[in-house]
Amino acid sequence: MRDVRGVIGRLGGQGHGVLDLPDGQRAYVPFALPGEQVAARLAAAKAVDGVAAQLLEIESASPERVEPPCPHFHACGGCNLQHWQAAPYQAWKRNKLVAALQRRDWSPAEAEAIVAPLLGVPPASRRRAEFVARRIGKRVVIGFNEAESRRVVDLAACAVSRPALLAPLPRLREALLALLPEGRSLDIKLTDCEGGLDALFTGALYGGPVSGGGAGRPGLEAGARQDLAQLAHELGIARLCWRQTPDAAPEILAQERPPVVRFGAVAVTLPPGGFLQATAEAEALMATQMFAALPQTGNGGLRIADLFAGCGAFALRLAALGHQVLACDADKPAIAALTAAANAQQLASRIKAEARDLERRPLQAAELKKLDAVLLDPPRAGAGAQAAALADALRQKAAPPLLLMAACDPNSFARDARLLVAAGYRLEQATPIDQFLWTPHLELTAVFRRA
User: Which of 162, 206, 242, 368 could form a disulfide with 393 if both were Cys (CB 3.0 to 4.6 A apart)?
Assistant: First the structure.
């Protein structure tokens, strides 16, 4: 370790200040802003293309520095950019998408023309959160991990989460003191739904022998089950599920009401642990941006494939608008939830839902040529196999004229976009969406048309 001083030149991709050192090294300093003179301590940990550093002192502060709205800022690892004025922060975040396109050979002028202004969500709008609970002696702390640490910030406030997600934490601390073994942790996923919270606990509780678990099957002691069911009732939790490990199927311990969310006007009961966009506002923005590109039709709607469809955030909206939709996702419980919602709300005739691993079995030319549009909403790794299949179909003149994409990583998006453009699609517009406020994470939507 050694101490260094210098002026922050810019912010890196993870929101850390970049300090170029005289010896040619590059140091990444958290909580520093461009133009600030800082003192920092180099750490042993290496960054991707430099070295991590600890901020020791801001010797000359930027005029863009503001007071963070959250009392846990600096300690909590959730948000790392609350100290920056809105305008430069938003410009930096939009530029993440511009820079990703440039790295895939779009010129600066082309990338600037393609990327629309940043759209954002308000504070206190996040409807799901994943907390960590840890038993430390005679108390339980619940919150988020500190940055680069397994220590848990005992959360008293959160500037990005809905108040409903924070309301049960004091009572959970009390209840888990009797349920959580000393030194052990529990992951708590809370989702704010209609009628109450959907809760999923992951981890070991009541560390002794298991009753009713069956031979070789992990479970909970009978007393723990009763205590958790009573806790769910007391807190008004709509559904409480538990699993011992992240790869185990969740078990429903208590359900007073179905955990329902709405995709547009369509009500869906979420499967335990099912994926949901972090904010309803960002999900609605994504739908609006993509659906605006759909051509108007008076002949019964378009034929659209919604790929990586999840529980139907876009597929059910499209069906409600009168389109014929093929919805595919590898997650079988999500497809089951989508199908149940379509059946319950008279949309079954417009939706065909299929549990399908699109990385192993993407839609091919024979299926794609029947479609008017494809909507892709892949995970962070992108839609590599399906993008390649679309590119091949385009070369065979069997690809749909319109592609819509929602993406959660600018870099994997830019990779897939370059493949599609090389095959003959035109990237018409990409809209960055700041769903994860004050973090480096960026969502986006994009419109491609057949050239």
Answer: 368
Question: What residues are annotated to the active site?
Answer: 408
* pLDDT value for 219: 63
- Considering the chain, what is the average pLDDT of its residues? 93
Q: For residue 346, count other CB atoms closer than 10 A to its CB.
A: 10
> Residues 254, 232: contact at Cβ < 8 Å?
yes
**Confidence bin at 208 (pLDDT 50/70/90):** very low
pTM (2 d.p.): 0.93
* β-sheet with 251-255: strand ranges across: 152-154, 139-145, 128-136, 185-193, 196-202, 239-243, 251-255
E strands present in 344-386? 351-355, 373-376
Average pLDDT over residues 189-199: 96
**CA dist 44 to 16, 18, 27, 74, 113, Å?**
17, 17, 11, 20, 41
Residue 181 tokens, joined: 């073994």
Q: In which residue are the tokens 């989508």 written?
A: 338
Spell out a b/e string for 355-389, using b for 16 or more CB atoms within 10 Å of the CB, else e.
Answer: ebebbeebbebeebeebbbbbbbbeeebbbbbbeb
Query: Among 54-63, 83-92, 292-301, where is mean pLDDT lowest?
Result: 292-301
